[in-house]
TrEMBL record:
Belongs to the prephenate/arogenate dehydrogenase family. One of its GO terms (biological process) is tyrosine biosynthetic process. Residues 17-304 form the Prephenate/arogenate dehydrogenase domain. This is prephenate dehydrogenase. Its EC number is 1.3.1.12. One of its GO terms (molecular function) is prephenate dehydrogenase (NAD+) activity. Keywords: Amino-acid biosynthesis, Aromatic amino acid biosynthesis, NAD, Oxidoreductase, Tyrosine biosynthesis.
Length: 304
């Protein structure tokens, strides 16, 4: 499917009348802020199972209405955005299905995309358009207070419309993310999950592992780790502070792709382990030279 254009909409016209965001955490609240601040939607409301999150979202003025009642939030919405952990999608899909009117667009922000098609798709009535999405932008923080409107600026947003997805719905969701500041890329859900397994999921798993390993060290070494934690290790601790429920759900719902890439990673790690053991300096240096070139290539591509 070719990328959706933005011919049907202009930068000044409101794109949506009423947007209902389910899950007003880091991503939901960032999108709610962007939709309002950048004039993308007339009214943004939210549903969250946490009454505290609803109260906070109202107190911060992020949404016009906040409720724990899904039906109240979804009534009259032309766009519904699911921004809850991926593991909740089946239950949320089942709950929202009967509440959706023909013509409504449903999208999500989940970090795994085959799960959206599998868990949300079957619950949607005919005439409701599903356009799964993943803003590749975030932080290690959670909750409505952690969000900010500019989170998506200069970042990618990947959309994974199923075959035969409604073209107009795809155009509108594409335009929403474009106006929020992102560059939209369209790909197949399976491909998305394989790419993100290496670029996002494995790095988080490595961070969770290394910080766990450091914290299992004997007490005296551990205190040194904290005292001298700088550079690389400090970056790992930031990533390892990411939301435990969200990341549990990512790994459980992208199991095959993560296990496959983990297998390859383990083999490559073992090769480096051997090189260190046998003093193969040339092999180590060659490897590090290649990875340095990759990093520089990424930076150059960003600046181009
Ligand atoms: N945190 C990040 O950096 C990024 C996260 N994502 C995806 O965004 C989604 C949300 O993540 P965050 O905003 O970080 O999480 P968060 O923990 O900040 O917010 C999640 C919200 O969903 C609510 N919630 C949970 N289960 C619910 C249910 N069954 N019904 C209604 N509300 C429910 C929680 O009360 C909470 O307010 C996840 O699917 C995640 O994979 C995507 C890109 C980046
Ligand atoms: O905080 C970071 O470094 C991230 O990597 C944020 C992030 C987390 C999950 C996603 O699906 C996308 C982006």
């Amino acid at each position: 499917m070719p990328p959706a254009g933005s011919s049907a909409v202009t930068d000044t016209a409101l794109l949506f009348d009423r947007v209902a965001i389910v899950g007003i955490g880091l991503i939901g609240s960032s999108l709610a802020r962007a939709l309002t601040e950048y004039g993308i939607a007339r009214k943004v409301v939210c549903a969250d199972r946490s009454a505290d999150a609803c109260a906070k979202a109202l107190e911060l003025g992020i949404v016009a209405e906040a409720t724990t009642d899904l039906a109240a939030a979804l009534a009259g919405a032309d766009l519904v955005v699911l921004a809850t952990p991926v593991g909740s999608f089946a239950a949320v899909g089942e709950a929202i299905g009967p509440l959706l009117k023909k013509g409504t667009i449903v999208t999500d922000v989940g970090s795994v995309k085959q799960a959206t098609l599998r868990d949300i798709g079957p619950h949607l009535p005919d005439g409701v358009h599903l356009i799964p999405g993943h803003p590749v932008a975030g932080t290690e923080h959670s909750g409505p207070e952690a969000g900010f409107a500019s989170l998506f600026q200069g970042r990618w947003c990947i959309l994974t419309p199923p075959p035969g997805a409604d073209r107009h719905a795809l155009e509108r969701v594409t335009e929403m993310w474009r106006r929020a500041g992102s560059t939209v890329e369209i790909m197949d859900a399976n491909h998305h999950d394989r790419v993100l397994a290496i670029t996002s999921h494995l790095p988080h798993l490595i961070a969770y592992t290394i910080v766990g390993t450091a914290s299992d060290l004997e007490e005296d070494t551990k205190s040194e780790v904290i005292k001298f934690s700088a550079g690389g290790f400090r970056d790992f601790t930031r990533i390892a502070a990411s939301d435990p429920v969200m990341w549990r759900d990512v790994f459980l719902n992208n199991r095959e792709a993560v296990l496959e890439i983990l297998q390859r990673f383990t083999e490559d790690l073992t090769a480096l382990q051997r090189a260190i053991r046998w003093g193969e300096g040339e092999q180590l240096q060659d490897h590090f030279t290649k990875t340095r070139a990759i990093r520089r290539g990424i930076i150059d591509a960003k600046q181009a």
